[in-house]
Amino acid sequence: MVSSTFRFNIIFRIAILLISVFLLAHQVYSNGNLLGSLLILLLIVFQIISFVKYIEKSNEEILGIIDSLGEEDFTVENQKIANDSPDATSKILQKLQEVNQEKEAHYQYLKNIVQHLGIGIITFDKNGKIQIMNTAAKRLLKVRQVKSLEELRPISELLVNSCYELRTGGRDLIKIKQQDDMVQLAIYAIELTLKDEEFKLVSIQNIQSELEEKEMEAWQNLIRVLTHEIMNSVTPISSLAATVEGELQGQLSNGMEMNTMSNEDVETIHMAVQTIQRRSEGLIKFVSDFRNLARVPDPKFEDVQLITIFNRLRTLFKNDLDSNDIECNCTIIPEDLTLKADPELLEQVFINLIKNSIQAFENLDDDRKRMIDIHATQGPKNQVLIKIEDNGPGIDPEALEKLFIPFFTTKKYGSGIGLSISKQILRKHKAAISVKSEDNVGTEFTIRF
């Protein structure tokens, strides 16, 4: 809405200018005094200049308000232009002030939430300049005011390097020393872009107590597994050794020569010794598997093209796929997708997963079309997502929870260490593996790098 004062001033100035022009015309046509005509002409020029300056001043005041709004300064409502147009500018300014106050209140609300979170939060730009560091993070790292990530290096070199290197969705576990105690920290990172500037949000959580609880649970599971496997082998060995010892003791106590033993007794002793040998070999294999599980080598990173690995795997499993009538499809987007990994260790992971999928079809007797699908795609922030999916019988929900526990297996002759080793290999690559399965529908393993 146009201001009534502004309209009156415009009309008044135009009216005065028209009167002056009329007087000048009257002077000229009536052969009036030349000096009077010149004075009227000067008056007209003055009025035009004054009129232009008045318009320019009004425009400058409006532009001033616009500039102030651009700088989020809403205090210009007391300017003359705002007073002259209360129905327009003042209402706009009032509304913008309300929006700004609401935004500020929302910001303070979120800031208070971040500050009172029990998990440490640090946000920083690509140069390592810290924007936000909440109270939990300061308490966890025993610091007060920190302006840059580099100031945290004396506390933990690993922590700073991990903050820089982690991508969106990346996780890491590090240890830092606090006084006389070692504390285990879980780190999770998300990359953000705000107004064309890149930021990273890192959450830090002390998981020492949870880790100790899980460690105790893992030890208990391991002891149960070791007890089960060792007792399964040692019990028959002990029993058969006692049987052989009893047979021989009986012969010796009767004063009989060994060569006078009956064929039946010799056969019994022979079978007992064979069984002892077989169970001893099983025990040695178990110890060997356990040693392999505990000695996963560190990866030697290099650029690996996934298409190369999957082509080798398709050749490796060709006979198994053909004999079980399984169709294997591989989709990689883009085709030249690469990642930093140890090719031999990574290939071992894929061999374990594909072999599991093939073996899942062995006890399947329906006429479904058997398929194994491998998908590899590049997600946001250069993440690589790999899925290996089959339409086999699926995995029992109870077994699904124990799938990555060492020596747990659902197969008759399985060792139970393939998936455990695979998980350790992927952990050394800072990758994660998950599985989901539905009965009689299929199983899907997902690996995130």
TrEMBL record:
<dbReference type="InterPro" id="IPR036890">
    <property type="entry name" value="HATPase_C_sf"/>
</dbReference>
<dbReference type="GO" id="GO:0005524">
    <property type="term" value="F:ATP binding"/>
</dbReference>
<dbReference type="Pfam" id="PF02518">
    <property type="entry name" value="HATPase_c"/>
</dbReference>
<dbReference type="InterPro" id="IPR005467">
    <property type="entry name" value="His_kinase_dom"/>
</dbReference>
<dbReference type="GO" id="GO:0000160">
    <property type="term" value="P:phosphorelay signal transduction system"/>
</dbReference>
<keyword id="KW-0067">ATP-binding</keyword>
<feature type="domain" description="Histidine kinase">
    <location>
        <begin position="225"/>
        <end position="449"/>
    </location>
</feature>
<feature type="transmembrane region" description="Helical">
    <location>
        <begin position="12"/>
        <end position="29"/>
    </location>
</feature>
<keyword id="KW-0472">Membrane</keyword>
<keyword id="KW-0902">Two-component regulatory system</keyword>
<dbReference type="GO" id="GO:0004673">
    <property type="term" value="F:protein histidine kinase activity"/>
</dbReference>
<dbReference type="InterPro" id="IPR003594">
    <property type="entry name" value="HATPase_dom"/>
</dbReference>
<dbReference type="InterPro" id="IPR004358">
    <property type="entry name" value="Sig_transdc_His_kin-like_C"/>
</dbReference>
<keyword id="KW-0547">Nucleotide-binding</keyword>
<keyword id="KW-0418">Kinase</keyword>
<feature type="transmembrane region" description="Helical">
    <location>
        <begin position="35"/>
        <end position="55"/>
    </location>
</feature>
<protein>
    <recommendedName>
        <fullName>histidine kinase</fullName>
        <ecNumber>2.7.13.3</ecNumber>
    </recommendedName>
</protein>
<keyword id="KW-0812">Transmembrane</keyword>
<keyword id="KW-0808">Transferase</keyword>
<keyword id="KW-1133">Transmembrane helix</keyword>
